[in-house]
Amino acid sequence: MAATQRRSPLLVTVSTVLVVLWVVVAAFPFVWTLWGSFKVQADFFSLADWRNALRGTFTTIQTGGSFTAQGYHGAWVQEEFWRAAMNTMIVVVSVVVISLTFGTLGGYALARSGFRYTFWLLMIALVFRAMPHITLVSGYLLPFFQWNVWGHLPTAIIVLVAINQPFTLWMLHSFFLNIPKDLDESAMVDGCTRFQAFRHVIVPVMWPGVITTGLFSFLLAYNDFAVTAMLLSQQNHTMIPKIASFLGSTQVEGNVMFAVAAVVSATAPLFVLILFFQRQIVSGLTAGAVKG
Amino acid sequence: MRHRTFFWFIAPSLAAMILFIALPVVSVFIQSLHVEHEQVLRTVENCGPFGCSEETVIDRAATAELRAAQPLGRFAGLSNYTDRNHLAFSELATMWERSDSFADFTRRAMTLPFWRAMAFTLTFTFVVTPLVLTLGLAIALGVNALPRVFRGPTIFVSLLPMIVTPLIGSLVLFWMVDSRGVLGAFLQTLTNNPDLSLRASPTLTWIMLIVYGVWSSAPFAFIVFYAGLQTVPEEPLEAAMIDGANRWQRVRYVVIPHLMPLAVFITLMQLMDNFRVFEPIVGFQAQASATSLSYNIFNYLRGDAAQFGAAATTSMLTILGVVVLLTPVLIRTWRDFNRKRS
Q: Per the domain annotation, does A110 fall within a domain?
C-alpha cells in the first residue's frame, strides 16, 4: 500500500518530524537519567548551570574522575538495595508462576463453557480489574494485622496473584477462544477426561498465549507500588517501595543520587524485557483490542 | 463443559478473587461505617498545698486497650460519608451561601479533601484520555509512513515510557523538570524567570502531571492503533482514491472508521487506568497542589495514626466512581452478549 501512494513532501516531513520528536521525548528522560546516575548530586541537580551535568564539573572535583559509581555503591551496598532486588525477584517469580497456573485453568474453563454465568464472571472480573489497588489495600490492613500476616512476602505474593487474576482471566480466556474447540473435544471423544484433554492437548499449544500473559503479570508485580509499599515491612520491601523510601531521606547531600542509581538499576530489567519480548508485548497489547 | 468440571477448573482463580478482592470490599464497607475510638479521658484530682483542682488527662493505657480490643473503632453509621473529609454536604451548603460567585464557591470547595481529589482525578482522567487517543493516532500514522527498517526501533523506544514502573517514570521526569534539573533550568532561561518552579504553582503541577499521564499512556494507544493500521482493507482506500479523496479525506472516512472499535477499547482501558492515578503524585511530590482519590486513601493509611475509617470511606466512594464509569461499557457488553446468544 505504501509503495503505490504518492505522498507530498510536506506530509512526509511533518510525519517524520513528529515521529522523531516523539522518539526523543520517549527516550531522552531515560538516557539523561542513565547519564546523570554516574555523576554527583551537584552536577545532576545543578543550581548554577545545567551543562555541569554534561561536563561533570563537580564530579571531577569531588571524585577525581568525570564518572562516578558512588550512587550505585550507596544504593546497593550502603542502603542494601540488593535485599530489595532479591525480594522483588522472589515476589515477581512467584506471582507469575501462581497466577499463570490459576489463570490458564480458569481462562480455559471460561472459554469452553457457554453458560450465562461465564459472562457474569467476566463482567465481575472487569469491574475488579478497574478497581484501584489501593482501595483493596485499605481492606486488607486490619484483618492482616489481626491474623498477624502483615509484612511477609507470601502475603504480598498471594494478594498480587489475586489482583492479577481478572486481567489474566480475560487475556487467557480470549486466547483460548482462538484455539479450536475440536482439538480438545476430539480428545474427549477418544476417552480423555476434560482435565486429561487439557493436560495433553491444550497445554502443548498454549505457550505463546501464556508467555504473553506472563509478561504482563510480570509487569504488574514488578511495577506495583500500592500493595508492596503498604503490605510489606521495611526489611521485606521490594525495589519500588525501597526507592520511594530513599526519597524521604534526601536531605543529606548525595542521597538523592542513591535514588537515581536505584531507579536506573530497576529500569534495566525492563529494558532487557522489551529487548527480548517486544513482539509478545505488542501482540499482547493488541490481543484484547482485536477481540473488542 | 459441565457445571462441575467448570467449577473445578475455575476454583483456584475464583477463590483468590473472592478472598482477596470481594471480601476486602466487604471489609472496606464495614470499616467505612466505623471511626477510630476517641481517646479515653479521665478526670484526676490534683491536690496541692493550695487546695485541689480537677484536671482532665488522656488515659493512654485505657485508650490503647480499647483500641486493641476493638480495632475497628466505634460504629458511626454513615457519618464518615457525610463528614468534612468526604461528601461534606453541610460544609458545601454553607460555602454555597457564603460565596458571592461560582468561582469563589469552587475555590472554597477546593479546600475539602474529597472534592479536591475528585476534581483532580476527573480532570486528569478526562484530559489525558482524549490526548492519549489523539497523540497515539498521530504517532501511529507517522510510524506507518516510515520505511520499514525504522519501525522496529521506534516501537522499542516507544514502549519504554509505558512499560516502566509508574513511580520510576514519574521520578525520571520529575528530576528533569525540577527547578534544579535540566528541563527546569531550560524553562527558567526560556521564560527569563530564575524563580520559576513547577512545583510552586498548582496550575503548572497539574499540567506536569497531565504531561506525565500522556507521556506514559500514549505508547499504548500508538501500539494498538498501529496494529489496527496494518489491517486497514485495501479496496475502500483505492476506491476512495479513484473517487478523488485526498489523503486527509481517506484518513477521515476510511481509516478512522476502521480504527473506531480500537479507539473504544483504548478509551475504556484509559478511563480505568487514569481514574486510579496515584504513583505520579508520589513521584512528583505534588500532594500540595494535586491529590487524587487513590492518593487520599494512601495518605489516610500511612503513618502511625492510620485512619482506617476515612480510608475505607474514600475507597467505597472510589469504587462507586469506578462502577459509574464502567456502567455504559457493562450495558453495552450485556447487549452484545444477548445479541450473540439469540
A: yes
How far is it, in rounded angstroms, from Cα B30 to Cα A108? 35
| Residue span of the structural domain in which A142 resides | 74-291
| pLDDT tens column, B106-150 | 888 888 999 999 999 999 999 999 999 999 999 999 998 888 888
Cβ atoms of A166 and B17 closer than 8 Å:
yes
In-domain check, residue A139: yes
Beta strands per DSSP E along chain B: 34-35, 41-48, 51-58, 74-75
Domain shared by A65 and A91, yes or no: no
The ipTM of this complex is 0.90
**Looking at the 3D structure of chain A, how many domains does it have?**
2
Does the distance separating the beta carbons of A25 and B6 come in below 8 Å? no
The grid cell for B188 is: 527558567
Provide the CB-side half-sphere exposure for A22 (13 A, CA): 33
Domain count, chain B: 1
Q: Does B334 touch chain A (CB under 8 A)?
A: yes
Contacts of B323 in chain A (CB under 8 A): 127
Which CATH number covers residue B202? Answer: 1.10.3720.10
Q: Are residues A11 and B6, on separate chains, in Cβ contact within 8 Å?
A: no
Nearest by CB: B142 against A15, A131, A266: A15
Reading the block at residue B323, the C-alpha cell is: 462502577
Domain extent for B304: 125-335
Among residues A266, A221, A25, A217, the alpha carbon closest in space to that of B219 is found at: A25
Are the C-beta atoms of A246 and A79 separated by less than 8 Å? yes
Under-70 pLDDT residues of chain A:
1-7, 47-48, 248-254, 288-292
**Residues A283, A263 within the same domain:** yes
